[in-house]
Amino acid sequence: MADIIAETDRLVLRTIDDSDALEQDRLLNTPTVMARLGGVKELHEIEAKHAKSQALYAREGFSFLFMVEKASGEMVGHCGIKRVDNPLASNVGDHEIGWLVREDRWRRGYAEEAMRAVLEWAFGRVAAPYVFALTSEANVGSWKLMEKLGMTRRKDLDFEDPDYPPEDRTVIQYSLTREEWKSQT
Q1: Are 141 and 150 spatial neighbours (Cβ–Cβ below 8 Å)?
Q2: How far apart are CA 16 and CA 172, in angstroms?
């Protein structure tokens, strides 16, 4: 059974349930949505990420969540907190936030709305001292939202990931401390 972690004006943010993989595959795992995230995944890869997220939630009390649109009851994206787990990053183990929104809900402010709730969760109940977000220079929408959330570009943490296509190979990071977040709210 999924736990509701937060509610916003338009969204319910809830934990991942065992039955969510097919819905994620159908709604979020499209070439356009996944273009800057390594491409479309196989169902077994989604299931493995779900299992990892559920284990993280059970162990540490945070994970990635699904965004459910209140008006329709439909899954419109996912977002949340995990540990930086790319072995090429110099900050493996730090708190990482992230999001994606299905294409037919783009440009409606859902990612920002969800991430403000995730940051409240990260700096409140999770008690993270700081968070990071990872993307590529080519993922303009992603890093623009990071900046809108008050995050700071950290060029000292850039790294190359050969698993991504050339335009996304340089992974860039942004960070935000609890104090910086509190000064904004």
Answers
A1: no
A2: 27
Tens-digit pLDDT profile for residues 64-123: 999 999 999 999 999 999 999 999 999 999 999 999 999 999 999 999 999 999 999 999
Give me the domains of the chain, ranges plus CATH numbers: 4-184 (3.40.630.30)
The candidate with the shortest Cα–Cα distance to 181, out of 151, 153, 154, is: 151
Per-position b or e across 32-42, b if 16+ CB within 10 A of its CB: ebeebbeeebe
- Tokens at residue 101, please? 């929104």
The pTM assigned to this predicted structure is: 0.94
The answer for residues whose C-beta is within 8 angstroms of residue 42's C-beta and 6 or more apart is none
Q: Which of 172, 165, 171 is nearest to 34 (CA)?
A: 165
The 10 Å Cβ neighbour count of residue 164 is 17
Measured CA to CA, the distance from residue 166 to residue 151 in angstroms comes to 25
Distant-in-sequence, close-in-space partners of 176: CB < 8 Å, separation ≥ 6 = 119, 130, 131, 149, 150, 151, 152
Q: Environment class of residue 173 by beta-carbon count within 10 Å: exposed (0-12), middle (13-18) or buried (19+)?
A: buried
